[in-house]
Amino acid sequence: MVRLVRAQRWYVRFPRAVPVAIFLMVSAITALSVYAIEQVEAQRAEAQDRQMALQATTAVERLASANVAYLKAGAALLAMRQKVTRQSFREFAQQIDNDEALRSGAGIGWATFVAAGDIPALERAMRAEGDRDFTVHPAPVGPQALVITYAEPRTGRGRAGIGFDAMSDPVRRVAIERAMRTGRPAATGTVILRIGAGNVERTGFNIYAPVHETQSGARRLTGMVARGFYAQDFLDAALGPEQLHDYGVAIYDAQGPDRTPLAMLGPQAPPARRLVRQVVIADHPMTIALSPPPGNALSSLSLLTLLFGMMVAALLLVVARLLTQQAAEDRKALAWFEEQASIRNSLTRELNHRVKNTLANVLSIVALTRRRTDNIDDFVAGLIGRVRALSATHDLLTRSEWGTTPIRDVVGAELAPYVQGTERAVMMRGPDVELAPNDALSLGLAIHELATNASKYGALSVPGGCVEIGWEMITDKLARIVWSESGGPPVPTSRRSGFGTELIEKIVAHELRNPVDLRFDGEGVCCTLIVPVRPPAMFQLRECGEGS
Predict the structure, then answer these.
(1) H/E segment holding residue 215
(2) Residue 204's closest CA among 348, 106, 68?
(3) Which letter does DSSP use for residue 197 in this model?
(4) Which residue from 284, 45, 315, 46 is spatially nearest to 184, judged by alpha carbons?
(5) What is d(CA 131, CA 149) in angstroms, rounded to the nearest whole number?
(6) 487: alpha, beta or left? (left if phi > 0; alpha if psi -120 to 50)
């Protein structure tokens, strides 16, 4: 087939390329713009997160510093007294509770240093003052104990700590010893604080402020002001929900054995997204973890930019498509006319080829029939039957649009005239196998000759006769078809070879490209044909000069 190739402009050859290219270009510009906006938004959010982390750290440090300052002031006030009494300590505690900024703590207590041997005397003295249940607990493990003798408030949260030896707890002892060394208030790590008579446990920390008295120019440590802080209350007082603005915050003991938070506020982000800052509360390091709120997939400005960019890209796509469509349609119409002309020429050549093949088969049948008969009636009858056989197979091929045709349909079409309204039986069995057009024509011609012979001399000529046709795949490209007759007249041992035998053994075998095994046994005729099975393929037009 000859095709005309003409020089074309690139936008004519590819009518969709221009609109798509413009759409992709505008989309890329939009994507870059959105990316730039998101980068700026990310930097702004990061700066805001750092600012919020600074505010949270400052708020915690400010609250801690205020409490430390009051504890230092209280320690200095108590140091000026010759003896700390219940009344003097209560006045000091009330001053702290009156300050709204300092109401984040639990109870506040006065702890006295006492030697282990003097504990019974301390217990008697405290009971004599009116605290009948005063008992030092747990039993001291060292030579000295730091026992909480007074606590405010006397009920509820403060009552639970009276009589407790703070030195018995390793975490508290570390802070107490640091306060003794430095002379400054010292905070503990994570401790468990008990609330009220029910001893409800809550996580928190203590701050111990040492109290020294001066005698004869020498300073002596007499006790400590101790205050407990519930971690959650402390964090609530430092950072209320109105200050967080959808942020989350958690406080950790930086020297703690695990990473369990002492307290949390707001939603917590995954560890990778948190901002971690260090704070120092009374010489003890703490960690503040700020959790930024989850951000949107795209900011409002990015969404507007994306929407506007996509609208512009779509509009330019439509305009460019309309501009190139007319030229593309004209070229497509011209190509279609050229293609139709080429197909028409090819179909003419194909039809001519098939007609010549069919006429060649008819001429071969006519020539062989003429040599095998001397009677004009027999000649005409044989010729008509064989041409009808070709016509029946041609009808099958026409219905399949000259594609593949099942073996069952070919055999059934050729045997149909011989079994209608008779007592003769025809059995067909085999899988679904489809043949190419030329192979189906050859098989139909062979089945016609075998059926004609059986109707005249074999199993189809008498009542009770049976013809069995079976087929199977012997390879993926070859099928074996077996024709066998039974129940018919005995086959003579000596007989003259007829036209049907010659047509099957020569013409059919040549067309099928495989030998045919035709036997005239005493019980009936048996014929075995090997037929090629070609896979279905698209209809291909023959080039000029092709022959087959």
Answers:
(1) strand 200-215
(2) 106
(3) T
(4) 284
(5) 10
(6) left
What pLDDT was estimated at residue 4? 40
Smallest Cα–Cα separation from 498: which of 359, 414, 376, 382?
382
Cis-peptide into 153, omega within 30 deg = yes
Q: Is the peptide bond before 138 cis (omega within 30 degrees of 0)?
A: yes
Q: pLDDT digits over 415-474, tens only? A: 877 766 556 688 899 999 888 877 887 888 888 888 888 888 888 888 888 899 999 999
Q: What is the pLDDT of residue 94?
A: 77
Alpha helices by DSSP H, 373-419: 376-399, 407-419
| Rounded-to-integer distance, Cα 272 and Cα 55, Å | 21
Strand order in the sheet with 284-291: 263-265, 248-253, 284-291, 275-281
Within 13 A of 155's CA, how many CA atoms are on the CB side?
A: 0
Structure tokens at 497: 């070879």
Burial of 468 (0-12, 13-18, 19+ CB in 10 A): middle
pLDDT in tens, 353-362: 556 555 655 6
Closest C-alpha to 445, from 371, 535, 534, 505: 505
Assign a CATH topology to domain 340-532.
Answer: Heat Shock Protein 90 (3.30.565)
Structure tokens at 243: 């200050």
Closest CA to 57 of 201, 218, 211, 254: 254
Mark the ranges of the chain whose per-residue pLDDT is less than 70.
Answer: 1-15, 96-105, 154-160, 195-199, 217, 241-242, 327-328, 343-344, 346-375, 377-403, 419-424, 493-499, 507, 535-548
Rounded CA separation 243/57 (Å): 12
CA angle 438, 439, 440 (to 5 degrees): 90
Helix axes 437-456, 376-399, angle to 10 degrees: 140
Question: Cβ–Cβ contacts within 10 Å for residue 307, how many?
Answer: 11
Rounded (10°) CA dihedral 110, 116, 117, 119:
30
Domain ranges for the chain, please list them.
340-532
